[in-house]
Automatic annotation (TrEMBL):
Family: Belongs to the bacterial solute-binding protein 1 family.
InterPro entries, per database record: SBP (IPR006059)
Signal peptide positions on this chain: 1-28
CDD domains: PBP2_TMBP_like
Protein's UniProt name: Sugar ABC transporter substrate-binding protein
Entries under SUPFAM superfamilies matching the protein: Periplasmic binding protein-like II
Molecular-function GO term, any one: maltose binding
Organism: Lichenibacterium ramalinae
């Protein structure tokens, strides 16, 4: 396995040995955008609508998610990269740092709705004060609860927890129903799942896991220790199934089984529950902090333009359509949350009201900023995944946190 950093370094070096001319689109009127698999048909649907109403055309090329970053880095080096890419927003800092993306600052700030664009997308799309990525698709994390189990446990089925104390009390009452009912579930051996569902507890407490544009690891803080202690208390109280400790992600959506009281999920899973599990009656709320603060992990894709692209204006024209009310409504109807807060309510008209919570999460949500995100966060052998599992399930959480911070900082320093 190659780290994203090493791929970009190799791509940058190779770029000097080949003709630095990007591949031309399939035709003079066609804009090609690469996208990763597993994203549904949102981008394809918007591209089709654009094609139907504009002279220029947009071709969406979908590549396997596990090969996407390497193929893009290789294509950049070979001069065959597409003009634009729908890039997992967490990777924007790495490509921007490597000098592989077009500076979109002037265009972005000229948009009359610039201040209404998703702040988390813009945060990770900015490098050294310049903007290299803008929001395309949007996802957030929220806390869901099973209304039927809440009712059986004597809880108000229409009210989700607003503090950690309420969360724990609700989980305890569901667990007390007996049998295989448990109050809470999380995938305990999945770094990507943890960053999506656990980090909001830290943010809602006023803490963070990274600082200085990803140059400093900040794991060993009262806020992270508090979140760990909270999860440990749920585990120790028997409110979490034992299988959670080794779940690497396949059982992430365990609430569908009807025996889990609470679970943090993504906005996209709201649709999954509504459409595929109609017998699971659920509510959603913002992920709370210890005393009522809230936060969320904002995910999705940024639109980025390859350095030296010939069709920047075509990208701008397509994105103007994406950001229009028509485009935003179409994005929403195919699974994405709106990227613009100023027209979000209009774009969401007719949608299930539970999505309103996911939209509200955009304003309070964040995305960790790191040029080495995969190495420190997503890798199953990386410091984040190893730290949270050992800290929550192991015998010495303090040591696990200190070790995780040291390992994370070593990786960050080595990549600089």
């Amino acid at each position: 396995m190659h780290s994203l950093k090493s791929l970009l370094v190799a791509a940058t070096a190779l770029a000097g040995l080949v003709l630095p001319t990007l591949a031309l689109p399939a035709s003079a009127e066609t804009l090609t955008i690469w996208s990763r698999s597993g994203q549904g048909d949102t981008l394809e649907a918007v591209a089709k609508a654009y094609d139907d109403t504009h002279a220029d055309k947009v071709s969406i090329v979908t590549l396997p998610v596990d090969e996407f970053v390497q193929k893009y880095a290789t294509a950049i080096a070979a001069g065959t990269a597409p003009d634009a890419v729908s890039l997992d927003l967490i990777h924007t800092p790495a490509f921007a740092q490597a000098g592989q993306l077009e500076d979109l600052t002037d265009w972005a700030k000229s948009l009359p709705y610039f201040e209404a664009l998703s702040p988390a997308h813009l945060s990770v799309g900015t490098y050294h004060g310049r903007i290299y990525g803008l929001p395309l698709t949007t996802e957030t994390s929220v806390l869901a609860w099973n209304k039927d189990l809440f009712a059986r446990a004597g809880l108000d089925p229409e009210k989700g927890p607003k503090t950690w104390a309420e969360w724990k009390a609700d989980a305890a009452k569901v667990t007390a129903l007996g049998g295989d009912s448990r109050g809470f579930y999380f995938s305990g051996a999945c770094g990507g799942c943890f960053i999506f569902t656990f980090t909001p507890l830290i943010w809602a407490s006023g803490g963070d896991i990274l600082a200085d544009e990803g140059a400093k690891a900040t794991l060993d803080t009262p806020q992270l220790r508090g979140a760990v202690d909270f999860y440990r208390s749920l585990v120790a109280g028997g409110m979490v199934p034992a299988s959670a400790r080794t779940d690497t992600g396949p059982d992430f959506l365990s609430i569908v089984g009807g025996r889990i009281g609470l679970q943090s999920i993504g906005a996209s899973q709201i649709g999954v529950l509504i459409n595929k599990y109609p017998n699971v009656h659920f509510g959603v709320t913002l992920i709370p902090g210890p005393d009522g603060g809230t936060s969320s992990f904002v995910g999705g894709n940024n639109i980025v333009v390859t350095k030296g692209a010939k069709s920047v204006k075509a990208v701008e024209a397509f994105m103007a359509y994406v950001y229009s009310l028509e485009g935003q409504r179409l994005m929403v109807s195919h699974g994405s949350l709106p990227a613009r807060s100023d027209i979000a309510a209009e774009a969401m008209k007719g949608q299930d009201p539970r999505y309103d919570v996911a939209v509200a999460a955009i304003k309070v949500g964040r995305t960790p900023y790191s040029p080495v995100f995969n190495d420190i966060i997503n890798s199953p052998n990386g410091p984040w995944a190893q730290m949270v599992n050992a800290a929550i399930f192991g015998s010495d959480p303090a040591a696990a946190i200190k070790d995780g911070q040291a390992r994370m900082q070593d990786i960050i320093d080595a990549a600089r």
